[in-house]
């Protein structure tokens, strides 16, 4: 049986959950016989008390309740606490209350394991203003309807991943919707009303709308008291009224005042009446208040100073000021935005995210704003554009171009390479293959139009540069730059470590107590001032510095007198609410070494990015063994 065909069949049935589909139709779509379809159905249903696929004289139909169990059992092949906890959360949202005995049976785990999962879930729910209510052997999700919808939104965006592209069928919803039809309808209404938004924000609005109507149809409307006069003049209110009219016609459901109020806020906080394409540094003051432009300019100037970056352009500041204005508006209305890319940005672009956290800290202090991780991730998207436009860094690879000339054709190739890789490659010499001597023309990278027996690592290019040549050259430069950075940083990084700042298997304690212990010892050595702990905790409160099984707490304090990395390792794990880590690297960089922070921070994240590598480091029995293993891993990266 081909799994891909079974998956395709299930997807076809899932797309039309309320329609019976005949075997002949499925067979035609999948390119198999009706007999084979019957075999597929029997295989899927095998072992389930309730059939996953229902059969009748009308054809086949998906049994949604049994299908969720089918998906769960497939996921159980890679069973983890996170998978179980996510499943329990989804079931709580859909059903409302669950028996711990039923959970134990359906998850194929012990009651003790279920209780552990519920304890973790309760802590997660508290951060979302929700809770679990226990009545003997039954648990129930309790909290405001708004909070439950936020939980649904979070679970759905986790399912879509960083793509944030909706499937036509979302398992958490009770009813089926033409999601892309909703999205197109919203876009058309925005165009009619002169309102602008981006694709991510449009998806946020679409998801809010779908969850809203699904909950209303299921008998769960918002009931809080609101004053529509506060929003009646807002541009998003007229769009909300049009959407309400559409929903009335489509589903026969009328939005009450509370639903209309919240829908308006979602629209207002994810859209703008400013057309970004028409705004630039020359006219920005015509569109936004001076205070937002000043906040944006001051924030980026602080970033330039602390991270030793080249100046941000006025065009960047103009666009960023629009975002700052919207951020202030959301904070004023206590609107919590959702960013589907938060986890990926935090994990894949740690330095950019760290700079975004720094900006968030600055805005929090200067304007007394509360800024969450999703807002920080949106700031990071803007910072990412700065790095994209300013190249990959000042470090370049020296190059020698060896040509087999034909009417100086090589000059065109060199010009093209320089245009493409000016920020990474400096071609110092160009020499004919007849005159080339590797001893006379040393370079970190030799480019050639013909094979060079004496230079085995030379990169051979075609006489006419191909897309493959460009890709190969880009990959080679990335590797060489990474190797050069590691070589430069390795000796410097090793000087950061001190056997007095190494901890192995400390007694169980909270994150705050662990950081207090590590910071106190750093202060005792006169490496930092007494304010260091407070600053580290302030950075940690903005957004956890943990990723995978590692935490790298830090702050760019001007009170650091000596570079250091304090290490705590534990094979059992250390509490870093809400997760567990096996390695903590407390980083301090003095003001004199501030220019190295970006590279050192990136290098630490690179070294500690693989859980298996961290596990090996955490198993070290002494400081010397830890340093030896760390040095070996860095040397291995040099050889890649």
Number of discrete helical segments = 24
Cα distance spanning the termini = 41 Å
Low-pLDDT residue spans = none
What is the helix content? 40-55%
The total of beta strands comes to 14
Mean pLDDT: 86
Strand order of the largest sheet: 10-13-14-12-11
Query: How big a fraction of the residues is strand?
Result: 5-15%
Shape: globular
Largest sheet: 5 strands, mixed
Output the structural class.
alpha/beta
Could you tell me the radius of gyration in angstroms? 29 Å
Give an overview of the whole structure.
This protein is of the alpha/beta class. It is 54% helix and 12% strand. It is built from 24 helices and 14 strands. The chain has helices at 3-15, 23-30, 34-45, 64-75, 81-95, 100-107, 111-126, 145-160, 179-193, 199-217, 235-251, 257-269, 290-307, 314-332, 342-348, 350-367, 373-389, 409-421, 467-494, 511-524, 532-542, 597-607, 611-618, 623-639; strands at 53-56, 59-62, 97-99, 130-135, 138-143, 397-403, 425-432, 445-448, 459-460, 502-504, 546-547, 550-551, 564-576, 579-588. The strands form 4 sheets. A 5-stranded mixed sheet has the order 10-13-14-12-11, with helices on both faces. Helix 9 packs across helix 10 and helix 13 crosses helix 16 (350-367).
């Amino acid at each position: 049986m081909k799994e891909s065909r079974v998956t395709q069949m299930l997807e076809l049935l899932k797309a039309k959950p309320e329609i019976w589909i005949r075997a002949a139709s499925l067979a035609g779509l999948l390119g198999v016989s009706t007999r084979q379809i019957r075999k597929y159905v029997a295989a899927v249903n095998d072992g389930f008390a309730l059939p996953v696929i229902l059969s009748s004289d009308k054809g086949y139909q998906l049994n949604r309740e049994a299908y969720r169990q089918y998906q769960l059992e497939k996921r159980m092949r890679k069973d983890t606490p996170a998978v179980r906890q996510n499943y329990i959360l989804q079931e709580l949202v859909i059903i409302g209350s669950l028996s711990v005995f039923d959970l134990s049976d359906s998850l194929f785990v012990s009651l003790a394991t279920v209780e552990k999962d519920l304890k973790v879930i309760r802590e997660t729910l508290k951060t979302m203003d929700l809770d679990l209510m226990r009545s003997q052997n039954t648990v129930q999700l309790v909290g405001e309807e708004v909070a439950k919808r936020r939980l649904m939104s979070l679970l759905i965006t986790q399912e879509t991943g960083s793509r944030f592209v909706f499937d036509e069928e979302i398992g958490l919803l009770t009813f089926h919707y033409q999601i892309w039809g909703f999205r197109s309808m919203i876009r058309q209404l925005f165009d009619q009303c002169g309102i602008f938004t981006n694709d991510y924000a449009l998806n946020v609005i679409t998801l809010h709308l779908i969850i809203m109507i699904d909950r209303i149809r299921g008998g769960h409307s918002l009931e809080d008291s609101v004053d529509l006069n506060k929003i009646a003049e807002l541009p998003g209110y007229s769009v909300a009224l049009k959407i309400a009219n559409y929903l009335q016609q489509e589903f026969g459901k009328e939005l009450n005042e509370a639903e209309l109020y919240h829908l308006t806020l979602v629209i207002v906080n994810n859209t703008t009446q400013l057309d970004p394409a028409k705004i630039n540094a020359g006219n920005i003051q015509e569109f936004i208040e001076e205070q937002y432009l000043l906040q944006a300019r001051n924030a980026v100037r602080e970033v330039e100073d602390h991270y030793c970056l080249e100046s941000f352009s006025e065009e960047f500041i103009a666009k960023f000021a629009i975002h700052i204005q919207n951020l202030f508006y959301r904070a004023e209305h206590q609107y919590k935005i959702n960013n589907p890319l938060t986890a990926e940005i935090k994990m894949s672009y740690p330095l950019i995210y760290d700079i975004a956290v720094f900006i968030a800290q600055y805005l929090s202090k200067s304007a007394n704003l509360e800024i969450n991780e999703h807002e920080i991730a949106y700031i990071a998207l803007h910072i990412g554009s700065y790095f994209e436009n300013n190249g990959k860094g000042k470090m370049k690879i020296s190059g020698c171009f060896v040509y087999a000339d034909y009417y100086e054709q090589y000059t065109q190739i060199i010009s093209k390479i320089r245009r493409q890789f000016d920020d990474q490659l400096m071609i110092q010499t160009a020499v004919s293959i007849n005159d080339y001597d590797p001893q006379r023309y040393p370079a970190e990278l030799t480019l050639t139009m013909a094979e060079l027996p004496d230079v085995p690592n030379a990169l051979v290019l075609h006489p006419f540069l191909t897309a493959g040549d460009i890709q190969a050259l880009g990959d080679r430069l990335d590797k060489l730059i990474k190797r050069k950075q590691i070589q430069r940083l390795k000796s410097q990084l090793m000087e950061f470590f001190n056997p007095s700042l190494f901890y192995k298997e400390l007694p169980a304690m909270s994150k705050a107590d662990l950081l207090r212990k590590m910071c106190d010892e750093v202060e005792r050595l006169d490496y930092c001032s007494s304010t260091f702990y407070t600053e580290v905790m302030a950075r940690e409160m903005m957004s956890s510095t943990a990723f995978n099984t590692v935490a790298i707490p830090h702050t760019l304090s001007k009170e650091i007198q000596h570079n250091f990395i304090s290490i705590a390792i534990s094979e059992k794990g250390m509490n870093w609410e809400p997760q567990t880590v096996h390695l903590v690297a407390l980083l301090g960089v003095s003001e004199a070494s501030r220019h190295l922070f970006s590279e050192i921070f990136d290098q630490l994240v690179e070294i500690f990015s693989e859980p298996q590598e961290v596990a090996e480091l955490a198993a070290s029995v002494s400081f010397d063994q830890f340093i030896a293993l760390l040095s070996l891993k860095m040397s291995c990266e040099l050889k890649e």
